[in-house]
Specification:
single chain, 364 residues, alpha/beta, UDP-N-acetylmuramoyl-L-alanine:D-glutamate ligase, nine-stranded mixed β-sheet, four-stranded mixed β-sheet
């Protein structure tokens, strides 16, 4: 039977959780692929105000809107995930697309992190402009993307160095399937090779609504036992996947029971360990049980990249064989430490520990 939703963080064995993650350092390897984006983050007025400002400038024939905070940073789910894993202290190999100046830019992002190695498939990376603003009482981000050569990255394009790193890993994560038109073939080939060698596999598909026509093929050849071990999705991806699987609706104003029931329904349909992470609760359904854990209440200062930090915590928890509730708590803490950091720094393991020590007991 699945565990009923509810409950809180309670008293966590913080020292035990951190010790088990720390014990992974130097002992396990993670491979992450395939997307790299050059990101520009724009923090804009609320969407209605922004529309008015843009229309006024357009009516005037164009011009500048001043006072919009902008940051250029490392982007793409795979580099963000690799960086977060490296900050936690796990040996990680990133396989991605870059060329020329963008390859140098990519390498520069990791110059302070010797836990991460990189192999590059030659090609144009992606470019994203992310608009962050308040909408209906919560912070949201809307991303405008050019996916570059990530869109055609099939398994035949992986280099020998990439394959060696992938097949020398303890877990392999493929993220942002939605951006890669060859993503199903890539995931099928990579994950099948991994399973032949007993390597665990992790998929975060990103926004599947842009690939609805291809989703059936993903279900039939990838989202099946023996290919994918762990599925990670946010609330928007949950809504799309439930619809595409014919499992009902996930409401816009969802409650904890909706998250619990969604995870349970997807697990029962796919028989793949299903993780759902939202701003309010995270949940995992696997092995006939469904666990729901509340997220930490923090002021969200950074929106872009939170899901990647959450995935890093989840992967670390999987490798450390943390019980599901502790795995979710660690992942929630890692993401919360990131979103609440004034400098948008991805937390180290010590940073997650400090966060947990200051939030060790919390109400649901």
């Amino acid at each position: 039977m699945g565990r009923e939703p509810g409950g809180g963080h309670g008293f966590l064995d913080i020292g035990g959780i951190i010790d088990r993650i720390r014990a992974l350092q130097g002992r396990v390897r993670v491979a992450v692929l395939p997307d790299f984006f050059v990101d520009r983050i724009l923090r804009t007025p609320p969407v209605d105000d922004l529309k008015v400002l843009i229309e006024k400038k357009a009516d005037a024939g164009g011009g500048s809107i001043h006072g919009v905070s902008q940051i250029e940073m490392r982007g793409g789910n795979a580099p963000n995930l690799a960086y977060a894993l490296g900050r936690i202290g796990l040996q990680t190999h990133l396989v991605t697309v870059a060329e020329g100046p963008t390859e140098a830019l990519l390498q520069s992002y990791f110059r302070d992190l010797d836990m991460v190695s990189i192999s590059v498939v030659p090609g144009k990376p992606g470019y994203t402009t992310s608009l962050e603003f308040e909408h209906r009482g919560r912070g949201v981000n809307v991303m405008l993307s050019d996916v570059g050569d990530i869109a055609t990255l099939g398994p035949e394009k992986l280099t020998e160095e990439s394959w060696e790193a992938i097949l020398d890993s303890d877990i392999v994560a493929i993220v942002n399937w939605a951006a890669n038109l060859e993503g199903t073939r890539l995931a099928r080939r990579v994950f099948s090779e991994c399973h032949e060698r007993g390597i665990q596999t992790f998929l975060d598909p990103a926004d599947v609504t842009v690939r609805e026509r291809d989703f059936d093929e993903l279900i039939e050849s990838v989202l099946i036992p023996g290919v994918v071990d762990f599925l990670s999705i946010n609330e928007n991806e949950t809504r799309s996947i439930l619809k595409l699987l014919g499992l009902g609706q996930f409401p816009e104003r969802y409650r904890e029971k909706d998250i619990h029931d969604a995870a349970r329904s997807i697990w029962e349909e796919l028989s793949v360990s299903t993780h759902i992470h939202t701003p309010t609760y995270s949940c995992v359904s696997e092995n006939e049980d469904t666990i729901l854990v509340p997220c930490y209440h923090v002021q969200a200062l950074n929106l872009t990249g939170a899901g990647d930090v959450w995935d890093a915590g989840c992967i670390a928890g999987i490798l450390a064989r943390l019980e599901p509730e502790k795995r979710l708590n660690f992942s929630n803490a890692a993401a919360a430490a990131y979103v609440s950091d004034p400098e948008a720094k991805t937390p180290t393991l010590q940073g997650v520990e400090r966060f947990l020590l200051s939030h060790g007991v919390a109400a649901a």
